[in-house]
Design goal:
Shape: globular
Helix content: over 70%
Distance between the termini: 43 Å
Oligomer: single chain
Number of helices: 8
Number of domains: 1
Number of strands: 0
Largest sheet: none
Structural class: mainly alpha
């Protein structure tokens, strides 16, 4: 809806976009193969593993190319607000998950630190795709990785 400039919600458009997405189609195909208990030949999984191992490098390369700290007050203010909201909500959810959910301790511990996961490496690409600030998104992604490491370690120490 944002990319197209439209303001109407359309299930048909969402489904159409998803079905044209190669990653989504791949996940869907693999889910179906798994449910049908069909196994791919070793050669296919080995080749896919080689290609998959390049993904983290390419994601980090894209982030490194995209990071643009302009140093302006507007960018720093926007980054501060976004990170404050993100980690404020994560802190509230973490406490709620740990203390309020009727699950076993291990599940509550896992949920308590998972909410502090860093922003996905795919977010800057999606941000650029809809014509928004790729540099800000990349910078937020890099900073969130560092903040998330500190938060996750802190939560692990507190709940273990």
């Amino acid at each position: 809806m944002i990319k197209g400039g439209g303001d109407r919600f359309s299930i048909k458009k969402i489904v159409s976009t998803l079905l044209r997405s190669i990653p989504f189609d791949t996940y869907l195909l693999m889910l179906i193969l798994n449910l049908l208990q069909i196994h791919l030949p070793d050669a296919v999984t080995t080749f896919a593993g080689i290609l998959g191992n390049a993904n983290p490098f390419l994601a980090m390369l894209m982030l490194g190319v995209g990071v643009r700290f302009s140093g302006g007050r507007e960018q720093l203010g926007a980054m501060g607000r976004i990170l404050l909201v993100r980690y404020g909500i994560a802190a509230v959810l973490s406490v709620a998950f740990f203390h309020l959910l009727p699950l076993e301790l291990e599940y509550r511990q896992a949920l308590a630190f998972l909410v502090f996961s860093p922003i996905s490496a795919a977010v800057p690409a999606f941000t650029a795709d809809i014509g928004e600030d790729f540099g800000l998104s990349s910078a937020l992604n890099s900073i969130s990785a560092l903040i998330s490491i500190v938060c996750i370690v802190t939560v692990l120490v507190l709940v273990m």
